Amino acid sequence: MAKEIKKRDRQATMQKLLDAALEVFSELGFDGATTKAVALKANVTESLIMKYFGSKRGLLLALFEDFAAKRAEAEKIPYPPGKTIEEEIAHFMTRQMEMTLATKEFTRIILGHASVDETMRKELNRKVSLDWHPVLKERLKQYREKGEVPAHYDIDAIVFTLGFQSFSAMYVGHMLLEMPPEEIRHRIMTFAQAYAAGLRALAQSN
């Protein structure tokens, strides 16, 4: 019983540190933040960061692992299906856009640091799952059976491309170019229509 309580206390403290790190990194940037500032925000001793995460860098990696685990679970939750393949792609991309928008501060932190730290980038690559979109994958298989997706096309490649385009639209369009989300949604709809039309045309030509 005592061990179980100790384990829960440790998990709660680690989560407090992760939440505090996200706030501090967002406010000061990774390079400007200190483990002391994170500890103060979490209201724990700085030594616990070293004990649980090893370093500020270890804390950032743990933040990414926490994010990736939660995102993977969220991806398993079905979103409203589209009545057509155009709607299906648009619904998927809109949902991805909204998920990225909800975590944009974290996205800035992790991509900003990974872009200048090759070792960090390699460690993140080992932790990234390329199978984050199981719902879309299964639905596209159904559209392939209906003759709306070319039979010889790799569904995984299509899903990866749509996920990447969704992220790029939000990251580049909103975070860098400061386009409003409403405009990005409109452009996503246009892209979905064009992409779906291309898939259907290729499927029908074979």
Mean pLDDT value: 89
Q: Strand pairing plus helix content: what structural class?
A: mainly alpha
Q: Please work out how many helical segments DSSP would assign.
A: 10
The coarse overall form would be: elongated
State the helical fraction.
over 70%
* Secondary structure: number of strands: 0
H/E series: HHHHHHHHHH
- Describe the main β-sheet briefly: none
Provide the number of structural domains. Answer: 2
Low-confidence stretches: none
What's the end-to-end separation, in Å? 64 Å
Q: Give Rg in angstroms.
A: 20 Å
% residues in beta strands: under 5%
What does this structure look like?
With 206 residues, the chain is an all-alpha fold. It has 2 domains: 1-54, Homeodomain-like (Arc Repressor Mutant, subunit A, Orthogonal Bundle), CATH 1.10.10; 65-205. It is 80% helix and 0% strand. It contains 10 helices and no strands. It has helices at residues 2-32, 35-42, 47-53, 56-75, 85-102, 104-114, 118-127, 134-145, 155-176, 181-205. It is elongated. The N and C termini lie far apart (64 Å). The model has no long low-confidence stretch (mean pLDDT 89).
